[in-house]
Every structure is written in C-alpha cells, then in structure tokens.
TrEMBL record:
Entry annotated with the keyword tRNA processing: no
Source organism, top-level taxon: Bacteria
Organism: Sinomonas puerhi
Gene Ontology molecular-function annotations: phosphatidylcholine lysophospholipase activity
One Pfam entry name: Lipase_GDSL_2
Compositional bias segments (type: Low complexity): 22-49
Signal sequence range: 1-24
Lineage: Bacteria, Bacillati, Actinomycetota, Actinomycetes, Micrococcales
Start and end residues of each stretch annotated as Disordered: 22-54
Keywords, comma-separated and alphabetical: Hydrolase, Signal
SGNH hydrolase-type esterase domain: residues covered: 64-208
Protein name: SGNH/GDSL hydrolase family protein
Record PANTHER family: SGNH HYDROLASE-TYPE ESTERASE DOMAIN-CONTAINING PROTEIN, THIOESTERASE 1/PROTEASE 1/LYSOPHOSPHOLIPASE L1
Gene3D superfamilies, per database record: SGNH hydrolase (3.40.50.1110)
Amino acid sequence: MKPLLALAVLAVLASCSASGTHDAAPSPSATASPSQSASLHSSGHPSGLTRVSVLGDSHSSWPGSWFERSVADGSVPGAALGVFSSHPGRTSIALQAWVAEATAQGGVVLVQAGTNDLLLDGAPPARAAQGVEQLVGAVSAHGAESVLVSVPPSATLGTATNQLNALLKAWAAAHGVPWLDVTSAVTAADGTWRPGLSDDGIHANASGGALMAEAARGQLPRLLAAM
C-alpha cells in the first residue's frame, strides 16, 4: 500500500473509533444512474415515475436495509431512485446538514430519523420528535415533498421508541404528511424487536430487513400516487 493511501486509511479508522456511535456502517450517497437521469423531465421526475430519495441514519443503509430492498433496487412501482443520503450515527438535528443534498433532485424524500436522538443523545421522545418534525420542515423548505418513516424498534429503548413513533404518526396526520410504517411487522408490543429479526438489538438483520422492505413496497405506491 502506498504511504499516502495508508495514512488516509488510518485516519478514517481513527475517526470511526473516536465517534463511539453504534452506527458504524458506511454512509452511501448513491443517486440515479446516468440512463435514469437522462429521462428526467423539467419537473425533475422520470417519465411516469416519481423520484424518491432518502434522508436518514444507518437504518436506511444497513446491509439489506428496507430502503436498499425496495426503492434502491427498483422494486417499488412508480418510484425511481433519487439521492441515497444515509448518515450513520446522526441525530435528527445533525441530519439537517444533508437536507440540501437529499432534496437536490426534488421529488419525494423519505425521512427516517430519531433513533440516535434517543440512543446517543438521551433525548426524551417528545424532544426527539421535535427534531424529526423540524427535519421534515427543512425538506419542505427546500422544495421537496416528505414522507415520514417510522423508527425501528430497540432492544433497550422499546418504550421510548413506541412513544416516538406514536408522536410522529400523530404529527404527520395533523400536518398532512404521508406516514410510511415499515416497522410494525418487526416490532413487539413493548417496542423491542420480534425474535430473530435483529442481531444487535438496533438494526434489522436480513429477515427483519426483508419484512420492512415488504412493508415499504406495499405502502409506497399508494402514498406516491396520492402526492
């Protein structure tokens, strides 16, 4: 390995170790392919499709995630992949730094945040909900439409996660923001993961991701058609 490359690798590893966050997965930022981009109309949508981006933490980029196995792989009718703006370890407030990136192609942005507010910042559900609501508002201010996505369960903060989802769902209904529930299928009554659906108690494993992706594929076409 060349000296400069070796130093760069060591710097990245040191940064990851120093962060101390549970979101250790890399943060992909993938956009539509050149062939898809070439089909865009002036409205920012491909012919007959809605451009769908995501803004969130590691839950949307974890290997085999619900987003990778629905919008990103092209299996959601009526949707074309927009910006993949997923940033592990970031709270809802920190994610505001990537709103401009996530909304760059217009269309619809799926917003999923709040886990790190609870887990890393120790925020109560009400404060975490306010941060997510502000994030949705920032997306709208940048000219894109939002779909608010439910927060996955937690092995250690199940009650708080349930409360956060209840607050976000009620806020979405009151403000006319579409609500995408990708987590009911994987959540036990106490807000923890159903058995066998998470290996670390935070992120979905392959089985959990498959159920969440199925929920996204089942709901998104209807939500997009109504927007």
